[in-house]
Amino acid sequence: MKIIKIESEFEVYNGLNEVPKQVSELMVYAADARLKAYAPYSEFLVGAAILLDNGEVITGNNQENACYPSGLCAERTAIYYAGAKYPDAKIVLMALVAGSTKHKTTTPVPPCGACRQAISEYEVKQDLPINIYFMGETGEVIHSKSLSNLLPFVFEKAII
Ligand code: THU
């Protein structure tokens, strides 16, 4: 028997004013996309913005459905669109903003497990870490320099 210890490192910024300009600019795209989310059931709006290495910015938001499981998170809406539109581009940065319309969300909202798995697919595919910044509507911003911090022991194509 052996024990494996896995360490994850995250940077925590006090607010948007502290993050690099490129990131705060991308957060503005994410915040704008968030306001266009279709979330009549949860009233929890999420926006995602992706910066590609070709300079393009792709945005997405959560799209809910009366048949709940048919809806999709903002992160996957955005990343699948990026993959569909620019299949050869690499993802440099992802900015995520999330919050309820029923109360103010002031703590950072990380991507859900399914979205982590989806983002991981692209990190593995492009063989380049994806920087992920996530936040609530306001407040602290958390930075992960790679998706792998958020999903150790990932199930990926090399396993298959
Ligand atoms: N949601 C996202 O868009 N991204 C996440 O990572 C977590 C959850 C959405 C799904 C659903 O529309 C709403 O937030 C509440 O769960």
From TrEMBL:
Q: What's a single GO CC term here? A: cytosol
UniProt key word GTP-binding? no
Any idea where the CMP/dCMP-type deaminase domain is? Answer: 21-158
Q: Give the record's keywords alphabetically.
A: Hydrolase, Metal-binding, Zinc
User: Is Hydrolase found in the keyword set?
Assistant: yes
Top enzyme category: hydrolase
* PROSITE patterns linked: CYT_DCMP_DEAMINASES_1, CYT_DCMP_DEAMINASES_2
Q: One Pfam family for this entry, by name?
A: dCMP_cyt_deam_1
Under Enzyme Commission nomenclature, its number is 3.5.4.5
Q: Which GO terms describe its biological process?
A: nucleobase-containing small molecule metabolic process; pyrimidine-containing compound metabolic process
Q: Which GO terms describe its molecular function?
A: cytidine deaminase activity; identical protein binding; zinc ion binding
Family, according to the entry, reads as follows: Belongs to the cytidine and deoxycytidylate deaminase family.
From the Swiss-Prot or TrEMBL record, give the protein name.
Answer: Cytidine deaminase
